[in-house]
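Reviewer 2 asked us to include a model.

Predict the structure of this chain.
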Amino acid sequence: FTLCAEGDQNMAGRRRHVGIGAIKKEALAKQKFAEKSTAIADLKFAHVTSQVEVFKGHLEKFAAEHKNDIKSKPAFRAQFQQMCARIGVDPLASSKGFWAQMLGVGDFYYELGVKIIEICLAAKERTGGLMGFEELKNRLMATSGKSKQDISEDDIARAIKKLKLLGNGFAIIPVGKRRLVQSIPGELNLDHSTVLQKAEKTSCVSVGVMVTECGWTEMRARKILDHMIGEGMAWLDAQNSDEPLYWFPGLFVSPSDSKS
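Predicted model (structure tokens):
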């Protein structure tokens, strides 16, 4: 019995030794696999980085050769922006950066942004901080004078996007088939957007319209509309024979807007 017991103990010891060895071997294999994976990932990253640098070099050469087209042609300028976006290059990141010095596009968009601010603020008392995109475009074109540089809708949208860096006061709001440019602090919620969509065709709504067509309660409709009046986005016409109307001057269409 003593010999059997000793044999069993030796066998158990060998099993433990084999088990520990297998665990160590597996851990070592995992470590080597992880190191290999890291090396491969580093190699791929270096390769991609190299490709990006090469493409960036070609992009810089392209920009230098077509500098005048980029500055003067909106469509060409938009295509160049798309090319830059593919490799994470932002020509508008700084008005004093490499791209701005090479092309002048940085200054162009910053100057356009300043004009947008001036136009929106000058008309704020009338529009309540919501101006039609077409009206803004027409006013920008009118203020550029005879030596005006062509300004596309893409240019305006990019300039407004850059103005967001100043806060949440400037944004483009889709309203049905139209777009409004917001130039007041704060974000419009879903209820505000619903009201603007209902007012798109006639430029006005009423509490009754919001109740019957949207299923709102009278309290909800009145609260939202009164808030929009308080923010200057809407005008109240209390003399309407049926019920008070809430007019949105930002949705008014001028003859020049309808032609564009």
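The two ends are 106 Å apart (CA to CA). The chain has twelve helices and six strands. We have added this to the supplementary material.
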